[in-house]
Structure formats: structure tokens, C-alpha cells
Amino acid sequence: MDTRVAIWNTLHDGEITVVSQDGDSLIMFVSIPYIRERISPLGDSFTLRLSGFRSFELRDSEGRKKSSDWREDLANNGIEILSAESETMPVKIATTQGYLVLDFDGIEIALDTGRVVPYEEVLQACSDYWDEWSARIPKK
Question: How many H helices and E strands in the chain?
């Protein structure tokens, strides 16, 4: 699966806390401590830089556009990521506030400390967490 889409499934339960636009890039902080703490150095968030950023839409559960002020919608509403609902761009992301639809060319994933990390490192930390979580559930 395309990393630009797959990252939203990997960061399931992460909360979008800060959003800023820098030229043609959208910068987004996603707080997800239980995954982030598994990657050194210690921290609680990932920074996603969406390059070639073209559009953003926040839609309600019925698919209606919620508002045109995407900065306010994202940063002030405690939006949690649930899953990617598409396999191609633009990516449609299910959230606790409806759907987030993003169109962009590329993605760079960094730790909140600034170190850029490959998607595979984040995926491994996520897989390890969920494997350990599953092992704690009593077997019937």
C-alpha cells in the first residue's frame, strides 16, 4: 500500500494536535505516545510533512463538508485518526469527527525531536505494540 495512505492506519488512535501550512507543505503533529515511545529518543508525537499539498476537506459522517477553516477544524477539535478509507490519493481518513480528505504528493515522517524516520520503523513500532497487546488478552 502507498505510504501516503498506509501511515493513517499505522497511526490509528493518534490525535491531530497541531497543523500549519508552510508554502506547499502541510505540517501536522500527531500525538500517539504508546507508539512514539518505542522509537528513540523518547517523545510522544510524530510530525508529518505533506509536500505538494493541494487540498483539505473535513466532512461529517454523512459526507457533507463541515467548514472551510481547516486549521481551526483540525487543531482545536481533538480529532483522532481511525483508519484510511481509501487506497489511493486523495486519501480519505475516518476520524472521530467524520472524514478527513487530503490530497498531496509526498509525505515525510519525523519524530517530535526532528529526526526523520522511515515509514517501516513506525510500522514496526506499531506492529510490536499490537502484538504485545494481543498476547495479554486471555485465550479462551
Answer: 4, 8
